[in-house]
Design goal:
Blueprint: H1 3-9, H2 11-15, H3 17-22, H4 24-37, H5 49-63, E1 70-71, E2 74-75, H6 82-94, H7 98-123, H8 126-138, H9 140-146, H10 152-171, H11 175-196, H12 199-215, H13 220-223, H14 226-247, H15 251-265, H16 277-285, H17 293-302, H18 307-324, H19 338-355, H20 357-383, H21 390-427
Antiparallel strand pairs: 1-2
Helix pairs in contact: 4-21, 5-6, 6-7, 7-8, 7-9, 7-10, 7-19, 8-19, 8-21, 10-11, 10-12, 11-12, 11-14, 12-18, 17-19, 18-19, 19-20, 20-21
């Protein structure tokens, strides 16, 4: 037995570092919840989206109309109503405030973190699960939108449920478990369609189809209870859509054609951007973990792709390509790719740790330096606001404390997890005597 193994198994080591290591998932959960909840309602609602969405939910209660969304007491049917229902429900429970308006997004974000932790733990292991959860919650776009009154975070949660449930159902040989997973998938697809329309069905549907096509698994269609599932989906979706059409004649024609096909195929909404727009959004939105992308790409390029790798790559690439072809582009459209990118990044970080601690130190050092530089920039900006970019200057005043909590918390957790990952890779070799990286 090596000295490293003897040290790692000693009672002294077990009573300190390893005990803390066992509690790390709970400590990470507490840190994530604290950072996301910190002063959730202290910042005024941003215009126009947050104020508009919060007001529509408030008018549900004022008018007692749970079918037709209203803005300034005029019917506005550009989006379905389920997201407004969620906000209105929290208004009833906790009162009308910025905090309650943001709760649906925050809880959906926490749900996404939990789902990718659970999925990664089952298919990759504990450390990939921990890193994936940390990477997701500290990605700048995910973190900001998790605290914003916006449709796309609950939509991301629904799509994450549906995509993970489909993969696990396809892999499961237990009939009851597969049926339960399929039920969760169809309910999530229905809920997503009530949040933001057919995109919640189309994007996962394309991922499902391409996965079946590429892996030549047409028998999956028999295993996922397609016809009963379509019935469940319609039972979730149709009641509100039909009532909305009955109260607002012509709604379905307007919503399906103008708000879906018109928005996608024409520039009439004045949201046109170049085809490469979402590449830039992804690079900025995934910051600071964008710095790990070269290792992710290299890792994928060198490996033979198993089922879960193919599935995650499809999960990332389909929304990027779909929305890049659209004539209407906004940064939050690609938020649903972030859970999959976080898993790929988490597996890459653990792979680097187990193959080359030196490369891992380089990758994490880059992130550490950049985050520290951001912190210093914001610190100077708090004393000299003119140093801040004009796009963030006005909003920074109300968010200064939050940004400091985010930066310091992510650096502390990052430092501890990096130290423990390298330590575990050194003292717990594989049976062959070498550390083996998980397949990605």
């Amino acid at each position: 037995m090596s000295r490293a193994e003897t040290i790692s198994d000693s009672p002294e080591a077990r009573s300190s570092a390893d005990l803390l290591n066992d509690w790390l998932p709970w400590l990470l959960t507490a840190a994530v919840a604290f950072v996301l909840l910190y002063k959730l309602g202290s910042v005024a609602l941003f215009e126009p989206d947050e104020g508009r969405n919060a007001e529509k939910a408030r008018e549900i209660l004022l008018l007692n109309d749970w079918i037709t969304p209203h803005e300034n007491f005029y019917p506005v049917l550009d989006k379905p109503i389920f997201f407004y229902w969620l906000i209105a429900l929290f208004y009833q429970l906790f009162g009308v405030s910025e905090w309650t308006a943001r709760l649906p997004s925050l809880l959906s974000a926490l749900g996404c973190v939990f789902l990718i932790y659970r999925f990664s733990r089952v298919y990759w292991g504990r450390w990939v699960a921990l890193w994936s959860a940390l990477i997701l919650v500290t990605s700048v776009e995910f973190f900001i939108l998790a605290r914003t009154v916006i449709f796309d975070v609950p939509l991301t949660f629904c799509e994450t449920v549906a995509l993970l449930a489909f993969y696990e159902a396809e892999q499961s040989e237990n009939r009851r478990r597969r049926a339960a997973l399929c039920l969760a998938m169809y309910l999530a697809l229905g809920a997503g369609t009530l949040i933001k329309g057919l995109v919640a069905l189309v994007i996962p549907g394309i991922v499902f189809f391409l996965f079946i096509l590429l892996r030549r698994r047409w028998q999956i269609l028999r295993r996922i209870y397609l016809i009963p599932g379509a019935g469940v989906f319609l039972a979730v979706v149709l009641p509100w859509y039909l009532q909305a059409e009955a109260r607002n004649p012509g709604y379905l024609n307007y919503y399906l054609w103008a708000e879906h096909f018109g928005r996608y195929t024409t520039a009439s909404f004045d949201r046109s951007e170049p085809w490469y727009y979402f590449i830039g959004v992804a690079l900025v939105g995934f910051f600071p973990w964008t710095l790990v992308l070269p290792w992710i790409i290299k890792n994928l390029w060198r490996r033979s792709w198993d089922d879960k790798t193919v599935y995650l790559v499809l999960w990332v690439s389909v929304p990027l390509l779909f929305f890049s072809a659209s004539n209407s582009k906004l940064p939050h459209y690609i938020l649903p790719i972030f859970p999959a990118v976080a898993i790929l990044a988490g597996a890459t970080v653990v792979g680097l740790c187990e193959k080359s601690a030196a490369k891992l130190r380089i990758a994490l050092s880059l992130i550490w330096v950049v985050q520290t530089g951001n912190g210093l920039y914001l610190l100077l900006g708090s004393f000299y606001p003119r140093l801040l970019a004009h796009q963030i200057r006005d909003r920074f005043i109300g968010m200064a404390d939050l940004l400091w909590v985010y930066a310091i918390g992510s650096l502390v957790i990052l430092g501890y997890m990096a130290t423990r990952s390298i330590h575990d890779a050194r003292v717990r070799p594989s049976p062959s005597g070498r550390c083996s990286a998980p397949s990605v």
